[in-house]
Amino acid sequence: MALLEFQNVSKSYDNVTKALSDITFSIEKGEFVSIIGPSGAGKSTLLRCINRLVDASEGTIIFDGHDVRQAGKAEMRQMRAKIGMIFQHYNLVERLSVIENVLHGCLGKKSAISGMAGHYTEEEKKEAFRIIQEMGLSDQVYKRCDELSGGQKQRVGIARAIMQKPKMILCDEPIASLDPKASKVIMDQLKEINQTKGITCLVNLHQVDVAIKYSERIIGVSGGKIVYDGPAEHLTKEIIQQIYQSSANDLIMDLQR
Ligand SMILES: Nc1ncnc2c1ncn2[C@@H]1O[C@H](COP(=O)(O)OP(=O)(O)OP(=O)(O)O)[C@@H](O)[C@H]1O
């Protein structure tokens, strides 16, 4: 059984225009898939329908055997605990330290009271330290997040997601605010956790060359519809042109294949 399934999913924010139109695809456990497409194509909407940050208007979404659109509050909470999310603007609590932000990754599994009181077990703290070390942030453990660089903040975001022990990580433009060097570190880390921990990754990207380099499979979205779904190596200039409706040469500086 696929880990994630979209069946004829549509989303309209205003009942007139469709942000997503009849989207059908499935993702197997362990895949690393990038979603590419021009601004406004529907990439964020697609990703956010999975954990119901956005509610789809039509169709069926199955995650790990659960019907996302039909799930009640408790079932949704359980599902969200299994789905990590990484955002372009990190979504950290900036005035809190790295370790506190990473520990927030366990909140989905705790009661509201022990979560609010900041009660974490010794095991959870050890695990958080271990993950922070893995992310190369050992020197920043007690630093406030507003003192970190963008690349370091995104590594905290990844550490927080790993802390959840998720089955899947959704990454919404994870490198859009970073320079090329920091972007490479983040993409390498996402690939590493995909390969070593078997965590399925679904990544929205603006950079076609990065998507081709890191993904096995690419889903191309244009005008709320899937216009390509296949191996990264089969993505031709013509298909890229169709997705972006502009010249592939303008979009790909260096394919690095
Ligand atoms: N909260 C909202 N209310 C109304 N319309 C929205 C909302 N969010 C997105 N849209 C519209 O839905 C469409 C898809 O937007 P979405 O943000 O999913 O695209 P995207 O491919 O992620 O774009 P970008 O790459 O610029 O982030 C766009 O036409 C957008 O204007």
Automatic annotation (TrEMBL):
Source domain of life is Bacteria
Nucleotidyltransferase found in the keyword field: no
Question: Per its UniProt record, what PROSITE patterns does this chain match?
Answer: ABC_TRANSPORTER_1 (PS00211), ABC_TRANSPORTER_2 (PS50893)
Location of the ABC transporter domain: 4-248
- Which keywords belong to this entry? ATP-binding, Cell membrane, Membrane, Nucleotide-binding, Phosphonate transport, Translocase, Transport
GO cellular component annotations of the record: membrane
Kindly list the GO molecular function terms attached to this UniProt entry: ABC-type phosphonate transporter activity; ATP binding; ATP hydrolysis activity
Q: Which InterPro entries match?
A: AAA+_ATPase (IPR003593), ABC_transporter-like_ATP-bd (IPR003439), ABC_transporter-like_CS (IPR017871), ABC_transpr_PhnC (IPR012693), MetN_ABC_transporter-like (IPR050086), P-loop_NTPase (IPR027417)
One of its Pfam families is ABC_tran
**PANTHER family in the record:** AMINO ACID IMPORT ATP-BINDING PROTEIN, PHOSPHONATES IMPORT ATP-BINDING PROTEIN PHNC
Protein name (record): Phosphonate transport system ATP-binding protein
